[in-house]
Write a structure and sequence with these properties.
Radius of gyration: 22 Å
GO molecular function, one term: transcription cis-regulatory region binding
Keywords: DNA-binding
Strand content: under 5%
CATH class of the largest domain: Mainly Alpha
Largest sheet: none
Helix content: 55-70%
Structural class: mainly alpha
Shape: elongated
Number of domains: 2
Organism: Nocardia transvalensis
Protein name: AcrR family transcriptional regulator
Number of helices: 11
CATH superfamily of the largest domain: Tetracycline Repressor, domain 2
Order of helices and strands: HHHHHHHHHHH
InterPro entries: Homeodomain-like_sf (IPR009057), HTH-type_TetR-like_transc_reg (IPR050109), HTH_TetR (IPR001647), KstR2_TetR_C (IPR041490), Tet_transcr_reg_TetR-rel_C_sf (IPR036271)
Number of strands: 0
Distance between the termini: 88 Å
Length: about 240
């Protein structure tokens, strides 16, 4: 009688490959945040992830591919939340507060990735750079949609894109000074920033909103230097 071979139990190859790639990505985030994209070698990533150099290239195409994946993944999270808030029910000012809270929470949760983007996004070339820029511009458009609605309803004094970009730039900078054991939680920081920002642009009772001199210049697709969710202000850079 022939015995049926017993299959050894263990993790399937696909699971092992996914876990290995996850280790590589985490190692890359750590090193890019510590040393910068250009200051990090592929061999260092493999060593930090405990993956041999030959196996490393089985899981990734290049160091730039890793950078793109890191920045794309958290930017897509921001985009999904911005789309949900902008498209949901509620008054524009309430939506704007929701956008601020969402952005601060994600900035804090992904502050290493944000710092990497602000410093190293120009390392992305070709389609990768263009694709990431498009994601950020879509985030900015959702913010602008909410601000436009608030201005149209008379709830905001202005809908100028300079205000939109300034808000996003200010929120992105949280990544550089936030400390987990500081005096405020991410929610409290969002409340403080929302109050500060909205007190400056919310129209008071009986106040007439002034029509802004707005620029609708479309950003060039060739540069990739703006912050997460922030359109490049082409008119400002000329002066």
């Amino acid at each position: 009688m022939t015995e049926t071979p017993v299959r050894r139990r263990g993790r399937p190859p696909a699971t092992i490959a996914a876990e290995t790639r996850e280790r590589i990505v985490h190692a890359a985030v750590d090193l890019f945040a510590e040393k910068g994209f250009h200051g990090t070698g592929v061999a260092e990533i493999g060593e930090r992830a405990d993956v041999q150099r030959g196996a490393l290239y089985y899981h990734i195409g290049s160091k730039e591919e890793l950078l793109f994946e890191i920045l794309r993944d958290y930017t897509e999270l921001m985009l999904a939340e911005a789309a949900e808030i902008a498209g949901g029910a509620g008054e524009p000012v309430a939506k704007l507060r929701g956008l601020i809270h969402s952005h601060v929470r994600l900035i804090v949760a992904h502050r290493r990735e944000v710092a990497i983007q602000l410093r190293d996004v120009t390392a992305l070339t070709g389609d990768r750079g263009a694709d990431l820029q498009e994601l950020r511009e879509r985030i900015q458009r959702y913010w602008q949609q909410v601000i436009d609605a608030g201005y149209a309803a008379g709830a905001l004094r202005t809908a100028d894109h300079v205000v939109t970009n300034s808000i996003l730039g200010m929120l992105n900078m949280v990544t550089f000074w936030y400390r987990p054991h500081g005096g405020h939680t991410p929610g409290e920081i969002a409340d403080i920033l929302a109050a500060t920002l909205l007190d400056g642009i919310v129209a008071g009772p009986g106040e007439i909103a002034v029509s802004p001199a707005r620029s609708r210049t479309t950003p060039s697709s060739g540069a990739h230097t703006s912050s997460p969710g922030e359109l490049r202000d082409t008119e400002q850079t000329k002066g």
